[in-house]
Amino acid sequence: MNYATGCIFEYDDAHPQGSGIGFKEEDKPNFTGSFYSKTKAMVEELLKEFDNVCTLRVRMPISSDLSNPRNFITKIARYDKVVNIPNSMTVLDELLPISVEMAKRNCMGIWNFMNPGVISHNEILEMYKSYMDLNFKWVNFTLEEQARVIVAPRSNNEMDASKLKNEFPELLSIKDSLIKYVFEPNRKEQLSKLHEENESLRRSLETKIFWWVVDSVQTYGSYPENCGILSSTKVAKVEDLGCSRFANFWVVYRYVVMAVPVQPST
Questions:
Q1: What is the fold, at CATH topology level, of the domain defined by 2-194?
Q2: DSSP code for 159
Q3: CB 164, CB 112: distance < 8 Å
Q4: For a disulfide at 161, which of 21, 108, 116, 254, Cβ 3.0-4.6 Å?
Q5: Domain locations in the chain?
Q6: Cα separation of 31 and 158, whole Å?
Q7: Which example biological process does GO assign this protein (predicted)?
Q8: What is the pLDDT of residues 120-162, one digit of tens each?
Q9: Residue 237 reports pLDDT greater than 50
Q10: Longest CA pairwise span in the chain (Å)
């Protein structure tokens, strides 16, 4: 099993951007803009001579681990500026188990190993904003502007995943796969952590009475009882400040009650 790359192609006249026409397994690589892509294409050509090798062309790999710096989503979310070009991509959480099954089925030859369809940088970042961070913002720039700040050109293309889809009909489109395997699990994890934090805070508040003393204000007394305010018999005070200054008295028992002692009228 050879995990290779699909970054050996770029949009051309026969496969224009937005046309829905993707590069197939038998197409000859047309992108040699980087040493990485050039050598990957050479290795793929050499391995074609062996009938016992399965070559999987991976593209812009994405996983549900959004803390991984090599995750495509993590990369572009941290960039100062990003281009906005539709590309074929591979959701590893869905595709890696499929590669194991391919080995069991003795699949050989070259396979475009990505989810069907394409998705742009902006579409991914819109999902990231919607699911992970409503305050997230980003800035776009053009390919020409990008070329001035990167070391080597980048591959942009659409790959035809129909061969893989025919072998595994349950394979999701790139957008559906991102939602199911990346964004929904991460949002559930975020909500679970938030719920745990809220529960911890609630339990803490339910067992305490807080006194907030403002020491700079001259007032009448400091105990609610002095003002005719009595706490519920179900609530036991755990602290006694014994101060003659102004106090806010917070009682938390199922509900939050704030009592402010004031000078009774005569």
A1: Rossmann fold (3.40.50)
A2: B
A3: yes
A4: 116
A5: 2-194, 208-259
A6: 13
A7: S-adenosylmethionine biosynthetic process
A8: 999 999 999 999 999 999 999 999 999 999 999 999 999 999 9
A9: no
A10: 103
